[in-house]
Design goal:
InterPro entries: DUF2007, N-reg_PII-like_a/b. This is Putative signal transducing protein. It holds the Pfam family DUF2007. By secondary structure, the chain is α+β, with helices and mostly antiparallel strands. It is built from 3 helices and 3 strands, in the order βαβαβα. Strands 1-3-2 form a 3-stranded antiparallel β-sheet. The radius of gyration is 12 Å and the shape is globular.
Length: about 70
């Protein structure tokens, strides 16, 4: 698994996951419980992971749909 994006924006990961799912790319969200523990004030970012083999395609899907991410 590779990190596709890391964000404090609580709306970005669901959007990215929906876009990826539409393309048949499985994703997995990490750090959900940590962000809940910190009280949802946005200090701790969440990470979205994809399979290594699908990383380039996943980045292209997000980029084509205007999703900003590092990398």
């Amino acid at each position: 698994m590779e990190e596709l994006l890391r964000t404090n924006d609580i709306t970005l990961i669901p959007r990215a996951r929906a876009l990826l799912a539409d393309e048949g790319i499985e994703s997995f969200e990490l750090d959900v419980n940590m962000s809940i523990l910190e009280g949802s004030i946005g200090i701790l970012p969440r990470r979205l992971m994809v399979r290594t083999a699908e990383l380039a395609r996943a980045r292209a899907v997000l980029w084509e749909n205007g999703v900003k991410f590092e990398g």
